[in-house]
Amino acid sequence: MNKRQALIAAALATVCASVSTASSAAASAPAAGEKEKCFGIAKAGQNDCAAPNGAHSCAGQSKVDNGAAEWKYVAKGTCEKLGGKTTAPAK
After folding, report:
1. Which residues form the signal peptide (predicted)?
2. Where are the domains of the chain?
């Protein structure tokens, strides 16, 4: 096998591995109706949207880890297992 054939084989193997990994990840992700907001588990800068207390108005703007008003979408039924709550904190 010459160098050109080896490069083509390596490229095809990489593409096949990427497609396989992407389809596996998509299959394990919960559907939109199977998610719920989980408060108190988002790491700084990794929240999914605005804080209900008005601290900020967009995703990725949390300043502290596990802030009570910060939330992320998680698979339904897993929030409490992760140490979070499904209801927003009182204002």
Report:
1. 1-25
2. 1-30, 31-91
